[in-house]
Amino acid sequence: MTDNLPLRGKVALVTGAARGIGRAYALRLAKRGADVAVVDFDLHSYKDYQLEAASMRGDTVVDEIREIGIRALGFQADVTDATTLNEAVQQIVGEWGRLDIAICNAGGGVGSPEETRASIVEKDLVDVVVARNLTGTIHTCQAVAVPMKEQRSGKIVTVGSQAGHRIEDNGGYAHYGAAKAAVAKYTQYLARDLGPFGVTVNCVAPGYISTGRLAPILSAMGDAQLLDDVPLGRYGTPEDCAGVIEFLSSDLSDYVTGAIIPVDGGLTYS
Ligand code: NAI
Question: Which atom of ligand 1 is nearest to 49's Cα?
Answer without folding.
Answer: 3
